[in-house]
Amino acid sequence: MTKKNVPATTPSLDDAVKEINSIYNKAQIQCAIEIGKYLLAEFFDNDINKALSKNPDKEISLRTISEHDSINIDYPNLSKMVRIADQEKEIADSCDGFAELTYSHKSELIKIKDSNKKIRLAIDCIKFKWSVRKLAEKVKAAKKPKKDSDKSKQSIAAANEFIKIINKAMKVPVIKVTNEDKGLLDELKQKKKDELLQKTKEMKKRFESMNAECEKLITKLEATKAN
User: Fold this and answer.
1) Those residues with Cβ within 8 angstroms of residue 95's Cβ, 6 or more apart along the chain or in another chain
2) How far apart are CA 82 and CA 36, in angstroms?
3) Could you state, in order of their start, the residue ranges of all structural domains in the chain?
4) Per-residue confidence band for 150, with pLDDT thresholds at 50, 70 and 90
């Protein structure tokens, strides 16, 4: 009995586009990595800093290569390729699925200098299937410096606390003993005199301690101002 030929299933348009993009992406990344690795190894001792250095005394640079009459790649793309190649070497082994990221995703990640931060972004990008636009937003946020570091916030809180204490202390009325007061004090019984004397000594000691701390604070603030 002769077997009938079963026609192959034609992929849907969406599946076809997905496959085409996947093939193109792999080819694009592989091309970038190979060119980047070649440039790093042959001209810059596998040192990304040397490759990106703008030292005018360098014998050869990415810019001079890009300005050659016969080359088909401009300077921005050559620069991107060496950074992608270096990035591949830097984090590919630390991030499962990194090879599956597109060229555009990897082009965003090269903008992050901190390796740990870059790895975390790559992991989240793979895990949550971020689009290039979403990753670009995350990269931009990661690069944006914080207005106040944790240490700075603690310093501001401490300064505010000092100001609050000083304001409270400034509201304490100044004690002035007049001749009339002296006459009234003479009329007090010894027990009440002793109590008042003890409280006055405690207050004096407290203010002497506050005065010493104020002197320390003044010295530190004036030294900071001088710097």
Assistant:
1) 119, 122, 123, 126
2) 4
3) 14-143, 150-226
4) low
